[in-house]
Every structure is written in C-alpha cells, then in structure tokens.
Design brief:
The protein is an alpha/beta fold. It is built from 10 helices and 5 strands, in the order βαβαβαβαβαααααα. The protein is about 50% helix and about 10% strand.
C-alpha cells in the first residue's frame, strides 16, 4: 500500500507588474523578482499608458511603479489604476522624496512609497508587506508622512481664547441662528452680537459666518 503524501503544494509566486521607463532599472527589478523565491515579474512596462491598456488584475498580485514616467506620470496613473482595480496593491518606487509628491501619491491610492535608494532586500520585504495589508514606506518617507499629518491635522484642543459669551454665540450660529434670533435668545442687541462676531472672526482667523461654523464643527470648538 503506497504511503500517503502529506506534503502541501508550494505557494504560488507573487506576480508583480513593473512600470519603469529606465531600461536598466526595469531589467534590474525584473531580475530581482525572478531570482527571489516566491516572486515573479509578471509583466513590465515603460509607460503608464501601456500598463493601463494591458494590465489584467487576474494575472498580477501587485504593481510597482515609478512616478517620473514619460507622458502620464505615476501619480495620475496610480489614481486611474485605483479606479479601475480598487483592490490591487500599488507601491511607488521613486527618487522623489518631496512632501507634495508623497501626499499626492498616497491620496491617489498608493499603498506604499519607497525611494529608489532602498536596498533590494527591503524592496522584497515591502512587497510582501503590502500584499498582507501593510503600507510600507522608506524611513525618510515615513518621517515626512508623520510631519504631514501634524501639519494638516488641526490641534486636538485648539485654544482660541474665546470668552464664554463668544462661545455661546458661536454655538448658536452652529445650531442655525442668525444675528437677530441669537440676539433675541440672549436678550442682547443685534449690535452687541455683531461686536462679538467680529471678535470671534478675528480669533478664529476667518472672514464669514460660514467659515466660522465650518471651523467650529471641524475642530469641535463649541
């Protein structure tokens, strides 16, 4: 009686599509993937237009793309790939470390952002991370992303030094009151409400009721 075979089949390789216009780098990445166990370069493209036309999400597991491509750049291409294939992981590999490029790429739908000086072993590790749901980034990029969040996120407890009366009037504006109804509810004159609003606008650094209400809601001031 033959012995039972308990060995499991090896996992299929991760199929990567490369989008890179520099031939030497493109071929280097192909070799890196094809020589790494459990990886393969499924397809490589010189332009984003070719990739968008030919990529079949059924035949690849992730995309590795440059930003500085001829004609359509990698950021716009990432946005279009994300629209076309919502679940397809996309990792940027680029020389660009500027905050604006990082921010635009992540907003376009990139799952990871690596710089081209990243060691080959780390590139492979990052590609494994992204198919497992991670968001790999080069160390310098990660630091910049943290700084970007600090820059764009409002202070958790912003102190605009509003008086109690000013906070009350701002709260009434958020609730939909106008100058006259706020004045009536508070038992003060419309002129007094207008005076307080000028102070509120100055302290919040806004120029209208709409901006004041939006800022109050966004930052939880009231």
């Amino acid at each position: 009686m033959p012995a039972s075979n308990n060995q499991t089949s090896p996992a299929p390789p991760l199929r990567v599509a490369i989008i890179e216009d520099m031939r030497e780098l493109r071929e280097g990445l192909q070799s890196l993937l094809n020589l790494t166990p459990n990886f393969s370069c499924a397809k490589s493209y010189r332009t984003m237009e070719d990739a968008l036309r030919e990529i079949d999400a059924e035949k690849i597991d992730l995309v590795l793309t440059d930003i500085g491509l001829p004609r359509m750049n990698g950021i716009e291409g990432t946005r279009l790939l994300r629209e076309k294939f919502p679940a397809l992981p996309i990792v940027v590999l680029t020389v660009h470390s500027e905050n604006q490029k990082i921010f635009q790429a992540l907003c376009a739908g990139a799952n990871g952002y690596l710089l081209k000086n990243t060691p080959p072993a780390r590139i492979i590790e990052a590609l494994r991370e992204v198919v497992e749901g991670g968001a790999p980034m080069s160390p310098d990029v990660a630091r910049r992303v943290v700084a970007l969040f600090r820059e764009f996120a409002p202070p958790e407890q912003a102190d605009y030094r509003l008086t109690d009366q000013e906070k009350l009037i701002l709260k009434m504006l958020v609730e939909g009151h106008h100058y006259k109804t706020a004045a009536f509810e508070l038992g003060i004159s419309v002129h007094t409400v207008s005076f307080h609003l000028r102070n509120i606008y100055a302290k919040l650094r806004v120029h209208s009721k709409t901006e004041a209400v939006a800022k109050a809601l966004r930052e939880g001031i009231t």
